[in-house]
Amino acid sequence: MSIQTILLLTTIGLAAGMLSGMVGIGGGMVIVPALVFLLGLSQHQAQGTSLFILSLPVLLLAVFNYWKTGNVNWRFGLVIASTFVIGAFLGSKLTLRLPEAWVKLIFGLLMAYVSIQLILAGYQGIKHDEV
């Protein structure tokens, strides 16, 4: 691995970590596109790598900080986490059977939809605060 690649990976990691800690995003919204567009990984490789990356840091560091301030709903989290395991298994099986172009299209549409919803909600919040 070249120094340039290591520096690029380090930058991606820092940006994704900061955004994950600040607003709860990082893997899908930052790491996957960066690995695809900046480092040339396939969509499948980027998604698998992103899932690997997020496993321990999110659990050990970010959740701990939120827990210390009373901002973790353990009951909700445990129910979602227990079913998330099944969903992640089924989703990965399905995705690996789809052509990469379809996976990119679905991923991009989902990101666009979420982005538009967040922009509209933020705009409404700002508009409401000014009144």
How would you explain this protein's 3D organization?
The chain has helices spanning 3-23, 27-37, 43-68, 74-97, 100-130. The chain is mostly helical. Helix 1 runs antiparallel to helix 2 (27-37) and helix 2 packs antiparallel against helix 3. It has a domain at 3-72. It starts with a helix and ends with a helix. The protein contains 5 helices and no strands. The longest helix is centred in the C-terminal third of the chain and has 31 residues, at 100-130.
Brief sketch in words of this structure:
The chain has 131 residues and is mostly helical.
- The number of distinct helices, counting runs of at least 4 residues, comes to 5
Distance between the termini: 54 Å
Proportion in β-strands = under 5%
Determine Rg (CA atoms, Å): 17 Å
Helix residue percentage: over 70%
Care to count the β-strands? 0
Largest sheet: none
Low-confidence stretches: none
> What value does the average pLDDT take?
85
Order of helices and strands: HHHHH
Q: What form results from the Cα inertia axes? A: globular
- Derived from helix and strand composition plus strand pairing, the structural class reads mainly alpha
Provide the descriptors you would attach to this structure in a database record:
131 residues, mainly alpha, 5 helices
Topology:
Blueprint (H helix, E strand, L loop, with lengths): L2 H21 L3 H11 L5 H26 L5 H24 L2 H31 L1
Helix pairs in contact: 1-2, 2-3
